[in-house]
Design a protein that fits this description.
By secondary structure, the chain is mainly α. It is 38% helix and 6% strand. It has six helices and two strands, in the order αββααααα. It has a two-stranded antiparallel sheet with strand order 1-2. Helix 4 crosses helix 5. The N and C termini lie far apart (53 Å).
């Protein structure tokens, strides 16, 4: 998936992120059904050089989504439907604030899914447009809940070999681990 080419990184600063086959299929179906909408805007700064891009998602009138209207009219209603926030109270103009569940949460969701899937911190930093992988690590290290399990499996696989480390081992080695019977036949 690409942002404006040559401008640095994803999400407004150019670049690309890997797109899974399932997501690509869903986007192709969306494009076939709705197409894209060209929009010309100043680039980088309010008085910057105009650039025409093709938007994938627009409002019912074919215009770019207004951030506030999208947040109140679509995003927060989806949060209510998912029971993340309560419905508006009678007579209230706005939904409850949801600072931890705003649109920026999708960026964190993407990052956590990538880390859970084994994407390296260095690669994730590139995908998120971070210049320092250390910043990415400090920001998202808490989103790596299965690190201990993967560490145990890696140790077993290395020391005992895939055949001896139990079902579901991820690192198969034809010769076994460093402590396997194949390498140390006198081991008890």
């Amino acid at each position: 998936m690409h942002d404006a080419p040559g401008d640095g990184g994803p999400l407004g600063v150019g670049g690309s992120v890997p797109l899974s086959p399932g997501t690509a299929k869903a986007l192709r179906a969306h494009l076939e059904r709705f197409g894209t909408t060209p929009v010309t805007l100043p680039w980088h700064t309010p008085d910057g050089k105009s650039k025409t891009l093709r938007l994938l998602f627009v409002d019912a009138k074919g215009k770019p989504h207004n951030r506030s209207v999208f947040n109140q009219g679509i995003w927060k209603r989806a949060l209510v439907n998912a029971s993340v926030i309560p419905p508006r109270t009678s007579g209230s103009q706005y939904f409850e604030a949801a600072p931890d569940d705003g649109m920026h949460a999708l960026r964190h969701t993407y990052a956590s899914a990538q880390l859970e899937g084994g994407t390296s911190i260095k690669a994730l930093a590139v995908y998120l447009g971070h210049s320092d992988p250390g910043f990415t690590l400090r920001t998202y290290t808490h989103l790596m809940p299965s690190s201990e399990g993967r560490s145990r499996s890696a140790t077993d696989d290395f020391l005992l070999g895939a055949a001896e480390s139990g079902p579901g081992s991820r690192h198969e080695r034809a010769s076994g681990g460093v402590c396997s019977q194949k390498r140390f036949p006198n081991r008890r």
